[in-house]
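Progress against Task 2.4 (sequence-to-structure conversion) is shown through the following example record, which the project officer requested during the mid-term review.
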Amino acid sequence: MTTPFPAASLLAATAGRVLLRGRGVTTATATATALSPGSSPFAAAGAAAVATGAVGSSARYGRRTFYTTAQEPLGIIHGRPPPPMVSAEEAVNCIRSGDRVFVHSAAAVPQVLVEAMVEKAVARNLHDIRPTHIHVDGHPRYADADMEAHFRADNLFVGANMRQAVNEGRADSFSVHLSEIGQFFHTDTLDVNVALVSVSPPDKHGYCTFGPSVDVTRAAVQNADVIIGQVNKYMPRTFGDGVVHISHFDYLVEGHVPLPEHQPVLSSEKNEVSRCIGKIIAEHLIEDGSTLQMGIGVIPDCVLSQLMHHKNLGVHTEMFSDCLTKLVKLGVINNSKKVVHPGHIVSSFAVGTRDLYDWMDDNPFISMRDASYTNDVFRIALNPKVVAINSAVEIDLTGQVVSDSIGPRMLSGFGGQVDFLRGAARSVGGKPIIALPSMTSKGESRIKTFLKNGAGVVTSRADVHWVCTEYGHANMWGLNRRERAMALISIAHPSVRDQLAKEACEELRLCPKAAVSAVDVGRGEMVYPHATTVDALSALK
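Structure tokens generated for the chain above:
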């Protein structure tokens, strides 16, 4: 079936040019275009289709548009021969200088293809290649200092393995909500020339899956000019939006490599504060029947470890890890009270251990979705009692939250923090939570009168509701600036409360009616109507 829109209309959208499987040629020369070494074997057919006006979803050899059903990865491109199974070196021959190359996210990073791309760039002296991704696991060699002449990565979220390159000016980062990244690709704001992805082996119908990472990958694949898939038997086969038919691929490469793993860390002594925060959130802020969102890290894992006796919890989140599986097996998480996909865990990606990936494999209890779906504020709000738990680097006395940087030094990105805080705020009975230790490992208060110079605000003061430290929880909703300052001081570390109260009065003119005494805090009293302080550290001992 061909598109009802004439070829001329499609070509006009790209200013008289059509990208033939990733390479731009003018329509006048389309029929004469010869296959160059390493170009897609379907480029010639695409040129002929364009020249004759037969640009349609069944061919999809030209530029993808919203007006072709080929944008839907579940759809089969009828009449197109199966993609060739080639070596990684052959597959990445299509990458050229200046290309934007999307790299599959998190644990699904196609390690074999990425390594081949790096080797090819060095061997051919390619330059200005733009690897583009959210967090990727493993060692992205294109971010090494000696690769600066060949690569400059665009980080839609900065992982720990990309921080040095970003902060040294050898790579770039974006400030963007996870829910909106897909629109970068759909609108050609970021034009993806090549997509490198990992997939589970095709089933008898020819369908692969994106395994534990659908996130923004689906949107990138929908709009990439060339799609290269690394078929990996270690990838779990998952349900949801991550199913893609092999007819969409230009090349497939066999690369059976175990996925990178993240081990949960709960027992370390240095995590005592995180366990305390987890206990406070679990006991005071999560009710039976709640729908949970949490990220990866010690605090989310500590919260989950404290929920063994809760009932009828659900999960609608952007990501999850191993600690979730135990609650499922105990029947604590059954998703029975959810409105959006009742009975299913909904997430866009997952990272964890091999046990987690094995549990996800062929498991219909889990629905892996595009991040624009999981992180849609209004969809999140449809679920009852949404509890969104997100971390922070620091927060000032007015409630501004810094989550992605320490001063000007980048640590991560916006991710889905604002998406879920806003969604939880709209949910009936919802609780948007910012959780953070009261002090840094260097003994510096994370609750500050003023943020660090150069720090970027991720969550605005208007979006902040609950704030939790190991000393208690405070609700910012409905408080004026003076009341907010006093509530936050109440859950700060005892050693800095007097100083913060003094600075709030002198620097911000937010003087309390009655001074907050550090002596009264930490013993379980209500020191402020909107802040509950607890001696949870003692309770853990």
